[in-house]
């Protein structure tokens, strides 16, 4: 199959899914375009801030899209292009987009609250506590990993085997551009809030700022060491977590969304110009080098098809910004389909290389393979290979930092909500509750633990990230399915994704536990593997408890909750 044919199939399937299935869900769930959203009713200038659809879309898309939809398909390509492509398209439409849309819809209908509150309201307090605790720990792990990855991409120096230190120009350019994005985001936030310009004027301003930041970054690279970047990045996240979303989060994601969209459009053009051949086998078997297609394929592709983290963004930050209910479809459903398109491009990219060809060109990491392939495609159109390669790497790196903004805020909100129940009167809280629910305290405790984890080595438990991420998807689907049933709305379209993701997650965790337990009984385990075993067991227990509680509610014959308006 040629690259063009893959691209055409993806465009037709994903575009058709938005027009047909997305609008079907919108009608079935009773979207009211005139209904006031929590962003208006609870506007607080910090988290609840109404924004135009294109701005919230930028936030959602930039937050959920990063290295995930690029790394996952490239890693999963060992099974062949056919299962990867099928899962991206089927999973992206019927699993990921449905989950993201349902999570945002349930949140909007519950005053913009997160999935944790929805679990408390429709399943029980124990489920909520376990879910929020898991979310908080998950966010700490992601912050630690992403911050370290970003610091690595910003690191301006490298040393060879002889100890000779040299500068890394590409990293310095990425660092400069990313820092300029932050400064420009503040200015753009002021413009969006106070100037009240036409959306096309805002778009033009954002694009000019984007081009200027990239040009200056390439011209004036900044060279700092990895440890220094760690401190700068965490200081930035600290500020981004507590300032109003309109001042930094919204405009920064808005800027970055254009960068990613330009990257996708450029890649699509490159595919149609170069028409790369597919050098992957269609199917390599159910067991490849000891890796089983089920569940490894579905855990590995993750963000390109379905990701639990998306539900945290949909219900944690974006739901507090949508102006009206009709915006939820393009913001959540549409952003997920756009990410699936990026995953298809990543598949075409890795398929364009013959066996060993990418490594021979010095392309070893997944982002490098992706950037190298797109640069090869566009060089056919006459664009400089090195420039395109640098720009694609810059885009991928920029989005890792963008995801940090959102995941850190979600972690802060999860910590705060863990201590708040519906029956707690916020005006009559104990001193302890006032401290732990304070946004500054919640932010500091979250980031301090993440910083320590980044320094001591998150890599010991990172192999469980895929399973943990997909477990979040299970819990979100369970919560949304219960919400839809309790509020007399059709939710059967969530049942198959929910059951399938349970099978995927619980199988993956069980395989990890069995493998590590056998090693423990025979040769013993290192500290890292011991931590993996402990976390895997805890994740499995957590998932089973919340899933069982949710399924019981789904199977109840009588509904005790009234429909939410």
Description:
The protein is mostly helical. The chain has 22 helices and 4 strands. Strands 1-2 form a two-stranded antiparallel sheet. Strands 3-4 form a two-stranded antiparallel sheet. Helix 5 (81-108) crosses helix 20 (465-486) and helix 21 packs antiparallel against helix 22 (527-555).
Alpha carbon gyration radius: 23 Å
Largest sheet: 2 strands, antiparallel
Report the β-strand fraction as a percent range: under 5%
- Report, as a whole number of angstroms, the end-to-end distance: 49 Å
Count of alpha/pi helices: 22
Which residues form runs of ≥5 with pLDDT under 50? 560-565
Would you spell out the secondary-structure blueprint of this structure?
Blueprint: H1 3-28, H2 38-41, H3 53-64, H4 68-76, H5 81-108, H6 115-122, H7 125-154, E1 157-159, E2 165-167, H8 169-195, H9 199-219, H10 226-242, H11 249-274, E3 287-288, E4 291-292, H12 293-301, H13 308-316, H14 328-351, H15 357-360, H16 366-379, H17 385-418, H18 431-436, H19 439-456, H20 465-486, H21 495-522, H22 527-555
Antiparallel strand pairs: 1-2, 3-4
